Amino acid sequence: LQLDDVSGDDFCGGIFRGYSEFFFRSMNMVYLHGYENHMNGMALGPRYNFVQPGWKIVPFVEGGVGFGFADSQGITEGGRQRGLGQDFNFMFSVAGGATYDFARDWFARLAFFYAHFSNAGQSQPERANNSIDAVGPELSFGYRF
């Protein structure tokens, strides 16, 4: 969903020229280290694309909020609960990267992604409000309708 037009963006000589989008994302994350094995969920939020005439690669920044379901194990070590406190968790994320259009409607996107998952204290005091911070590269492919 595109929210504005690039035609009048001359602020600071046009270096911030671009447009906003609203994204919906489905996620399936696999954890390589930790007490949980995976997180499945959805997120939504705004993305700003920095568009310059003649550029084939479009830089962007984005932020999102959403939810996820993990395979919380409820593992206790040394009398202290480890991992997430429950399966249902809230999340927020930020990312920055670039999009490349390799066909009229098809694109590839590479980003540096940070997401924070937490149960927001819903399971306290029985279980701790531990969190998961996911950081790293994200490669995605998409189709524009």
The main sheet comes to:
6 strands, antiparallel
Termini separation (Å)? 10 Å
Number of strands: 8
| Uncertain stretches of 5 or more adjacent residues | none
**How large, in whole angstroms, is the Cα Rg?**
19 Å
Q: What topology, given as strand order, has the largest sheet?
A: 1-2-3-6-7-8
**What is CATH's topology name?**
Porin
What's the structural domain tally? Answer: 1
Number of helices: 0
CATH class: Mainly Beta
**Shape type:** elongated
Q: How much β-strand is present in the residues?
A: over 45%
Assembly classification: single chain
Coarse structural class:
mainly beta
Roughly what is the average pLDDT, rounded to an integer?
85
By CATH, the architecture is named Beta Barrel
- Tell me the series of helices and strands, N- to C-terminal: EEEEEEEE
Proportion in helices? under 10%
Question: What is the strand and helix layout of this fold?
Answer:
Layout: E1 18-30, E2 38-50, E3 57-70, E4 76-77, E5 80-81, E6 88-101, E7 106-118, E8 131-143
Antiparallel strand pairs: 1-2, 2-3, 3-6, 4-5, 6-7, 7-8
Supply database-style keywords.
0% helix, elongated, 6-stranded antiparallel sheet, Porin, two-stranded antiparallel sheet, 145 residues, mainly beta, single chain
